[in-house]
Amino acid sequence: MNKYLRFDNLHDFWSCAFRESTAYIKSSRKASSDWYGGAGWQEAKNLAICGWTDVLEEISKIRVNLLETITGKMEIRLPEYGIAGGVIDVGEYLCGSPEYFIKSVPAEYENQGKIIRVVCSIACSADISPEVIIKKGAVICALIDALEMLGYRCEVIANSTCSFYSSRFEVDVCIKKANQTLNMAETVFCLAHPAMFRRMMFSVKEQEGWSDYAYAYGYPAEAKDKGNLYINKIFNREVVNSKAIECVISQLKKLGVTINYN
Question: Which pLDDT tens digit goes with each residue over 6-20?
Answer without folding.
Answer: 999 999 999 999 999
